[in-house]
Amino acid sequence: MRAWQAAALTAAALILPVAGSAQSPSGPAAGQALYRERCGICHAAGGTGAFMLERRLGKERALLAERSDLTAEYVRQVVRHGLQSMPRFTRVELTDTELAAVAAFLASPKEPPQH
Q: Most buried by CB count within 10 Å: which residue of 6, 15, 33, 95?
């Protein structure tokens, strides 16, 4: 085996989880944690994604975690295929199980804002 092949296999072993070795995240609670970890850098207040959504859709629709108009299917489509400045995420970057949890969180009912 060549050195570069060994390095590639080592890198793959570090990146790809072993089947069944980790608990699969599911549901809105797990989705919220994944959303903060994987999506929050852009979609939390002050992030580029929130800024771009505010420009396009208005301040009331800029923060995805506060919206009540998102469906899980819509979230899955945008994440997998991208939309305007939102890049697509592959199944390596975000597994189907992780995406399902994030989508469930974003599509879950929200408390109305207190004014």
A: 95
Amino acid at 113: P
- The single-letter DSSP state of residue 3 is H
φ, ψ at 86 (rounded to 5°): -80, 120
pLDDT in tens, 8-62: 444 444 444 433 334 455 667 889 999 999 999 999 999 999 999 999 999 999 9
Task: Return the CATH number of 24-107, one of 1.10.760.10, 1.20.1270.10, 1.10.340.30, 3.40.605.10.
Answer: 1.10.760.10
Distance between CA atoms of residues 47 and 66, nearest Å: 14
Q: Residue 17, SS3? A: coil
How many helices and strands in the chain, by DSSP H and E? Answer: 6, 0
